[in-house]
Structure formats: C-alpha cells, structure tokens
C-alpha cells in the first residue's frame, strides 16, 4: 500500500523547561527503599503522582540490573515516573527501561562541608530580567515560569499548580501547589506569600514539603529563604 504524503509538517520540536526530581538511592535493597517511600507517600498521597524522577545511587552504593528493574517497577506501581539514571551503565539502565543522564550535577562533599563564609564568597547566579506578573488564578496542572526574573502572582494558586522563577516569587493571595524560587541557583531568592498552604516550597534546590512546615505558619503570611544553605520559613 502506498503511503500518501501530506503537505503539513508531521512533527514540531519545542523547548520547554521541566522539573526533574532526583531520587538519591541510599541502599542497594529496593524493597527497603520502597517501604520507606510508602511512608512518605502516605503523608502526601496525591503530591507525587506522575512526578518524573532521575535515580542517582549515593557514593558506595552498587545497584545491579535486578535491583534497578525491581526499583523502577515499584516506582511505576506507585504512580511515579522514573525516566533516567545517573552513574550507571547504559546497559543496566536499559534493562529497566530507563535512559542515562551522564553529567548530572550533584553537590560534592567539599561543597556540602564548606563554611558559610566560603559559600558567600562564591558568585551565585542573579536574576536580572523583568518581573512576570500573573493576575489570573493559577489552576491545578498549570506551570508558570518567570525566566530571568521575579514572579508576581496577585491571584490564588491552586493545589497541583507549580510556580517557578529564577528570582523571587511573590504571591499576594493563597499559595497552594508548589513554589520554586532561584531555580537557576540564585541563593538570594525568596518566596513571599499572604497565606501559606503550599505542598512544596524550594529555594535554589533546597526544599520543604507540606508535612515539614511548622503548623503555626499554615494559612499565615510567610517567607521562605536560605540561611547558610538551609531553607528557612518565617512568619511575616
């Protein structure tokens, strides 16, 4: 049967920024990991649905083909989406239906152990672009990204929505969903909101889930920022 050609394009490639969560594997036993993961999922059963994951074995942890296959299958059963590994061979990754990310930037031990003064001496990316203003509600499933600048939202942010900014995030209403400031590494970025009900807040890669937020800050004006590399949450 002849294939009929059409004049229209068959596909289109578009660039889009997508958040990938790194799952650091601290044990060679996938069952131990999955049991502990079940406890975390029970705290926020809907938050992790469909979350793309990159699996990264910690230093000294060896994951063989069987263990990786079991782990990937267990994650998919829990409605997570493992997409790739780092630090493993392509053959091992392929056995579990995963790709390989060869140069995933992970914090090195000397960076983790650096003093606060040393961290302050290192130049950090700074947001220099114009702020992005959003005046309509941000609904579940929507992602709003302010590239190169701050994000200002004057309407409610629903559960399941995601805010991202290279700079600060200001929400002059209720903040649910996820808010990630300084996504390109700006450690001076902050998150401000009028009512904190977020599923996750993060600044320059340091994050806190809803169950880790002080109950006194729930439904209250709050600010998230980094102090000596650790995420802090304070009332406003």
UniProtKB/TrEMBL annotation:
Protein's job: Cell division inhibitor that blocks the formation of polar Z ring septums. Rapidly oscillates between the poles of the cell to destabilize FtsZ filaments that have formed before they mature into polar Z rings. Prevents FtsZ polymerization.
Q: What is this protein called?
A: Probable septum site-determining protein MinC
Q: Does the keyword Phosphoprotein apply?
A: no
Asked if the keyword Cell cycle belongs to this entry, the reply reads: yes
| UniProt KW keywords | Cell cycle, Cell division, Septation
The UniProt record lists the Septum formation inhibitor MinC C-terminal domain at: 134-232
Which BP terms from GO are recorded? Answer: cell morphogenesis; division septum assembly; regulation of cell division; regulation of cell septum assembly
Judging by the UniProt lineage, the source's domain of life is: Bacteria
Task: Write down the species.
Answer: Spiribacter curvatus
**Which proteins does it associate with, and in what oligomeric form?**
Interacts with MinD and FtsZ.
Family membership:
Belongs to the MinC family.
Q: Where is this region: Disordered?
A: 103-130
Query: Where do the Septum formation inhibitor MinC N-terminal domain residues begin and end?
Result: 11-82
Signal peptide limits? none
Pfam families this protein is in? Answer: MinC_C, MinC_N
């Amino acid at each position: 049967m002849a294939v009929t050609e059409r004049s229209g394009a068959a596909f289109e490639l578009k660039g889009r920024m997508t958040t990938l969560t790194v799952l650091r594997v601290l044990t060679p036993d996938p069952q131990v990991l999955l049991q502990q993961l079940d406890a975390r999922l029970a705290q926020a059963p809907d938050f992790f649905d469909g979350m793309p994951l990159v699996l990264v074995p910690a230093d000294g942890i060896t994951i063989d083909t069987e263990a990786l296959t079991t782990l990937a299958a267990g994650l998919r059963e829990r409605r997570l989406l493992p997409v790739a590994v780092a630090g493993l061979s392509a053959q091992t990754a392929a056995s579990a239906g995963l790709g390989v990310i060869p140069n995933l930037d992970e914090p090195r031990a000397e960076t983790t152990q650096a003093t606060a003064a040393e961290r302050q001496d290192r130049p950090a990316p700074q947001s220099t672009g114009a702020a992005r203003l959003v005046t309509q509600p941000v609904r579940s499933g929507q992602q709003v990204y302010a590239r190169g600048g701050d994000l200002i939202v004057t309407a409610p942010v629903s559960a399941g929505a995601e805010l991202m900014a290279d700079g600060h995030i200001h929400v002059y209403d209720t903040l649910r969903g996820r808010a990630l400031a300084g996504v390109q590494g700006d450690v001076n970025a902050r998150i401000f909101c009028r009512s904190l009900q977020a599923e996750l807040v993060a600044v320059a890669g340091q994050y806190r889930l809803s169950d880790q937020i002080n109950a006194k800050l729930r439904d209250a004006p709050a600010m998230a920022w980094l102090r000596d590399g650790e995420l802090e949450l304070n009332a406003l």
